[in-house]
Design a protein that fits this description.
single chain, 261 residues, alpha/beta, Rossmann fold, 6-stranded mixed sheet, 8 strands
Length: 261
Amino acid sequence: MTRLIPRLAIAAVAVLGAAALGGWTTVPAAAAPPTSNRDPVVQVYLTRHGETILNALHLVQGWSDSPLTAAGRATATTVGTNLGAEIGQVDAAYSADMVRHYETATRMLQGMGSKLSATRVEGLRELNFGGWEGAKQSAMGGAAFAYLTQQGIPEPTLGQLTDAIGATNPVSALPAENCDDVADRMLSSLDAIAKDAAKHRDDKILVVSSGLSISCLLVDLGAIDRVPETGIANGAVNLLTYKAGVWTVESVNDTHYATQP
């Protein structure tokens, strides 16, 4: 996978909804395999779940889970309704296996008027924060940045930030993931989803995941300069296309679907 080298800093913790992502230089990637006009194009509408109770309480939420708030449920339905009005029905739907992801996908499908059910995929989960799970976001962020300052890294990359979260993990028996871990499993899961869709000539796929897992994937796909400073919003849609093994990021953090007509 392509790994990225920063020129400008990430100014805040992405998982807290405030990742200021600056300019990046990419390591040259291997040449993409040739494609033909006969290769099917799969459109993946990669969406962040709606607001949850733990989001509202500003608590760390990775492999921990909580249901959507009333606002989160409303957002999911609205996004589904507006997305369906714009693109029509999706051919398949997937979500991470947590309550918040499946509930978001279900309400989006209901908003579209679809009879599909989402398939749960563990690889689409949020980053595992280890012993920081359920802690105050401010506590984890403070510890991570204190560690980075001690290491002489005042302007960390997203990868360095997740590494710092792991290094300051207060419960060593509960190991944390880093951004590369998450990008690898996200891409593996999406590859499998897209290959299956291409095989069946399905061209529009809904996928629901989490903010940091989506950000780590976008970094890996070379779209870091397109992620907003505030991170991926609840209910935001990111459009990816897949053709003959090649991923293209078409749009990032599209929030207009969450707007009531």
